[in-house]
Every structure is written in structure tokens, then in C-alpha cells.
Amino acid sequence: MSSRPRKFEVERENHDRWLVSYADFITLLFAFFVVMYAVSAVNQNKYEQLANSLGSAFGTTRAVQNIEQEGTSSPGGAYEPKKLQMGSSFIKPFPALKSRNDKWLREREAMTAMALDVSRALSSLSDQGKVRVVQNNRGIRIDIESSILFAPGSAELENSSLEPLLEVAALLVDKPHAIQVEGHTDTFPIHNYLFYSNWELSAVRASSVVRLLALNGVAEHRLSAVGYGSSQPVTDNETAEGRAKNRRVSIMVLYDTPESANDGAEIKYKRP
How far is the C-alpha of 89 from the C-alpha of 91, rounded, in Å? Predict the structure, then answer.
């Protein structure tokens, strides 16, 4: 039985296929311009909300001024924008920032004057190298060598310590700044029935100075005591002179900060 021969149809060429690609291209081009227009459009409401938020953050009623394109048109039709002048209503400083900077400068000047008063009151000890007054980015630091405050291995104030500490207390009693008293030792180890290590010795020495300042009128809420042991030397401990400089008490009068120590948000882990 013979099979019938197959018929092969010749596929006709479609000359209109390019219209499909062209239509896709036009659609993509249209979508591109729609997106570009959406991105470039300014949402005035969101701009106003941003301006008000900035104003609230910096303590001003309005942080950003609306800047309109004011200008004139030349006879030829070209637009000439109005030039902004310094001091115009478009450029305004933030009053809150300026006030804060002025307050900081006034405080720094007052602290410099206080440091000079302390240095003058303790000038005899300063000339002997027993006292050093420094102003740094934290405030004023008054370094007093332990040899004029304590007997070796003791945290009880000596009679010789009363005069300089009372001078310091008199200068600090009416000031609002927080005061941190820091105790420091050399690397020579100590271990007796009173102090297990230099950590305890430095902390108790700082507390002894805090107690004397409080008894002489300095408000207790301004005072704190910290013991650093031998961890923060000012020089090496290889010589007797160096160890004597490292054994010291530092009275740190701190700059005021705009944030209160009691402010902040509680961080609490929540179980999933």
C-alpha cells in the first residue's frame, strides 16, 4: 500500500511584523516619560511639612522660606531672575543655633576666668609643680599631687590639704557646673587590710575630696567621685618623680551640656 505524498505549504513572509516591536517601543517610551514627569513633579504639601518639621527641630517658626522665582522679562521675552542679596528675607540664620553658640562662648569665657581664679589662689603650689590647672574640651581640670593631700597608702586627708581644698571649694560653691573628682595612683601595687588594690585606693581618695567639698557648701548633686587606679598616668612610672606626678587627685569642673543625664529613651528587648 503506497502512502500519499505529503504536501508542504510554503510559509508566506509577513511584512508587518515590525509593527509589534514598534508598538512595544512606543509603549516603553510613553512609560518612561510618565515616570520622569512623576519624579520631577514637586509635592507642595510635602515641602510645607518638611519646612515646618525643620522649623520645629531648630526652634524657629519657619526653618525654610518659600523662594519664588521673582524677576522680570526682557523685551525679547527672556526671563531674568531677581538676584538674591545677602541679608535679604530669603537668607535667614537659625536663631536657636546662634543662641546656643553664644551661650557656649559665654560659658567658655566664664570657665577661663574661673581657671585663672583657681590658678591665682593656688599659685604657690603651682610654682612648686604640685598643682596644675588645665582647660580642655571637658571643662577645667585641677590636678593636685597626692603628696599634699594624703599620707602614702592612706585615703585620710592630711591637715596640709585643707588650705588648697578650701580655696577650691570657695571658688566652686556658687557655680552651677557638675564636678567630677578623679583619683589616680602610680603602678606600685598596694594590698593591705584597707585597700585590695590601687582601684580601691584611688576611689576612696576621690570620695574623701568629694566629702570635704560637700561639707564646705558645694551642692551634693553636683559632685561625683571616680577612681582610675594607675590606668591614666600623666607620665611614665620609671622614676620617683614620675610616680609622684601620677599619684594625684583631679577636680574636673565640667561644661554644661544641653542634654540632661536623665533624658533619653529606654532600650528594652522584646521577646519575639
Answer: 6
